[in-house]
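Working notes for the structural subgroup meeting. M.R. asked for a predicted model of this chain before we commit to crystallization trials. I am recording the input and output together here so anyone reviewing the notebook later can reproduce the run.

Input as submitted:
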Amino acid sequence: MDSNKTTTIGFILIFVVFMAWLLYMNQQEAKLPHPSKPATAETTHVTVPPPAAAAQAAAPGPATVDTAQRSTVFQSASAPNVTKTVQTPLFTTQLSSRGASISSFVLTQYKTWDKKPVELVAPGEPGGADINLKFVASDGKVVATNDLPFTLDPKSLSLTSGDSESFSAVCRLDSGRWIEKVFHFSGARYVIGIEYKLHGMENTVSGYHYTAALDDPLPYVEQRTMDETAGSKAFAGQAGEMEDLNLTKANANDHKTIDGDISYAGIRNEYFEEAIVPYGTKTAGAEISGRTVAITDGVLARYSASINVPIGRTPDETLSFQLYFGPLEYDRVASLGVGLEQSMYFGWTFIVRPISIHLLLPFFLWLHGFFSNWGVVIIVFSIAIKLITIPLSTGQMRSMKKMQVVQPMVTELREKYKDDPKKMNEEMLKIYRTYGVNPAGGCLPLVLQMPILFALYQVLKNVIQLRQAPFAFWINDLSVPDILFHFPQGLPFIGGAHMSGLTLLLVVTMFIQQMFTVTDPRQKQMAYIMPIVFIFMFNNLPSGVALYYFMFNIFGVAQQIYLTKIATPPSLEELKKNPKKGGGLMGKLQAMEQEQRKARQQQYLGKKK
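Returned structure, recorded in token form:
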């Protein structure tokens, strides 16, 4: 094949793969409708509408129970309404005796975009934020424990990181029937143990299963509403696999049912999560549901998740769960040992995800032990990755240099055998083998680097450690795009009404890199097209991602300058004296070409006889 065509095809294939990948990773943002005021959507946090308004705007999910359908069996029960506070180094939570449910959950170590404490319970939600146990009563109607009055000791608890404490709340129907809800708190974890103990309820409960539900949607706490909508979802895990539901279009309403034994189910927003993990309790399926409502500056998504537990019909029945309620820190989520970390997307399960979670993420977090500034960590990280990939990138550049040396001979062959493509290909393969040149050598090293690049993108885009992490100059949050200046209105295709400073720097380094790489005049347009395309792809990406690729390009340009201006390219004589031993890929291709030619000749001679 003509080397110019090979190089061109290689560039096109790499561009298509890279473009498809970035479009795929950002498809959720692309699906979102453009706000009526683009500048506001980028810089103003959207307050979650009151629950009543949101419920009117979007149809309720399947987990919602109509008040008219609720059982009257427990209406005679009563208890004073009190609040209990539990404080740990990680969070402060308030529990209401109504439903013995969590009415407030404030994280100590995290702030909202406007520097307020992160509250993971949406204000005004009547049902509470933890596990709402539902079942059908003997009158055929639904009981939801978050509606029931419980007796709760209001004495506050304060735990240190080494403390743990348990207490219970009781809803008594009569002297022989009651529901006890037991809480287990630890000062060092975001995991809360919750047990429902049903005493003497075997004749009060009917139907086939209990439903342990998370009905309270997580509130939005980030500045960029469209990013939080794209990062929010409901999910459920089963047998090592995960089903999820992510809605980004306005006025959508959907749900999924998963049958069989369930490992976990939950809901998340961009950086925080609430999930149920059955503990020693048999399960019989799960349901995840979601709905969206259009608001002034985008789309608001609200999710719920539930797990079904078979009814045991015994006088004393205990249902045990763990509730993870906190940040999406990989080690904490993975420590539950049920696969809940699958709710954090780090790339395709095959190849990319293992690289992300077993190599890049631990190394990234390890570097932070030496550098407090996460921007500096990213720079050092990019240097380390560049050093690791130097053999591949150097091989790519040297291969392209060899191609340039033999290019005049290839051009001459193309002109000489322009009417005989088969002969031209055979002679070109001879040249490649004689001089140890691999026309695919310039593309293959980059293709081999792609899984690492994909994994890096996912790590830098999803780690909570970059959330609100400042770097320097105008870059004050590595988890969102760095805005160098605003436009009066949004520009077509670029997305938003801003320009990222790191994206501009990235485009400059990309242009320089292309000028060194592309030497064929017929391919010079690539030096102009690729940087322009990168404006569209990187302008709305987190600045941490853009900072990494900018530094990676800086080191790449330095490497190319060395190989282009300092390192002497090999001559034809040197290439001929030291061809690639064993023939390599070109030897195999030439052997295949010769075998096919002989086969065609024998077939032709056979027909003549």
